[in-house]
Amino acid sequence: MATTALVGTIMIDCNDIDAMVKFWCEALGLEQKVRYPKYVWLSRLSEGGPALAFQQVPEPRMGKNRIHLDLVAEDPAAFAERVLELGGSRVEDHEVEGFHWSVLADPEGNVFCVTEAGQ
Amino acid sequence: MATTALVGTIMIDCNDIDAMVKFWCEALGLEQKVRYPKYVWLSRLSEGGPALAFQQVPEPRMGKNRIHLDLVAEDPAAFAERVLELGGSRVEDHEVEGFHWSVLADPEGNVFCVTEAGQ
């Protein structure tokens, strides 16, 4: 059998780890599970799947993220409003051949997309 | 109930989508599931969890990725060798208080870490 690996964690660099953990816990309905001074792991996204985690770094975010998350919501418009309430921002909306998605950003400017479940 | 969303996809920008899909399918033991000219989705990382996907972009990767993946392998040394065979590279090794991890990179220089399962 070939040597392979599993994805255990999606790690996000951040400058204000408490603010970022609060935002992402609320946005995804997750809980903080493990905490070290400069690292926080949230509960797993699904059983056996990866966890979202955060590490405090000194450098600011630069340019467009090379890796981003695409989210799925039952009501993307309501979710976008919730993101704004939580300190995130709306970047732009797209539609291509009947497929809609919105680009949002977390409090540190990491962009992510949201589409409607089952679209 | 609060308005939340699920993580459906971890999307990685790339310049050579075929090379990147080949590398990541082999490294993680996944299969290509959906293909459009500039987008590829792999099989889900776990049931109900996110999928890894790739989008072809014109711009090169710049600086350190703000989001990276942490992998878990039964045999990290063998996995690191496999990454090199597949066209990836080894960046550095770390040990902090008995916890070991290696930093590797995919063919486009996206860094990721690998640790031993159950460490």
List the helices and strands and how they pair.
2 copies of one chain form a homodimer.
Chain A: E1 6-14, H1 17-28, E2 32-36, E3 39-44, E4 51-56, E5 67-73, H2 76-85, E6 89-96, E7 99-105, E8 111-116
Parallel strand pairs in A: 1-4, 5-8
Antiparallel strand pairs in A: 2-3, 3-4, 6-7, 7-8
Structure notes:
Two copies of one chain form a homodimer. Chain A is an alpha/beta fold. The first copy, chain A, is built from two helices and eight strands, in the order E-H-E-E-E-E-H-E-E-E. The longest helix of chain A has 12 residues, at 17-28. The N and C termini of chain A lie far apart (37 Å). The model of chain A has no long low-confidence stretch (mean pLDDT 94). At the A-B interface, strand 1, helix 1, strand 5, helix 2 and strand 8 of A face strand 1, helix 1, strand 5, helix 2 and strand 8 of B. Strand 5 (67-73) of chain A pairs antiparallel with strand 1 (6-14) of chain B.
Extract low-pLDDT stretches of chain A.
none
How many strand segments of chain A? 8
State the CATH architecture of the largest domain in chain A.
Roll
Q: What is the CATH homologous superfamily assignment of the largest domain in chain A?
A: 2,3-Dihydroxybiphenyl 1,2-Dioxygenase, domain 1
Mean pLDDT metric of chain A:
94
Order of SSEs of chain A, N→C?
EHEEEEHEEE
SS field, number of helical segments of chain A: 2
**Structural domain count of chain A:** 2
The CATH class of the largest domain in chain A: Alpha Beta
Helix proportion range of chain A = 10-25%
Q: Which quaternary structure do these chains form?
A: homodimer
How far apart the termini of chain A lie comes to 37 Å
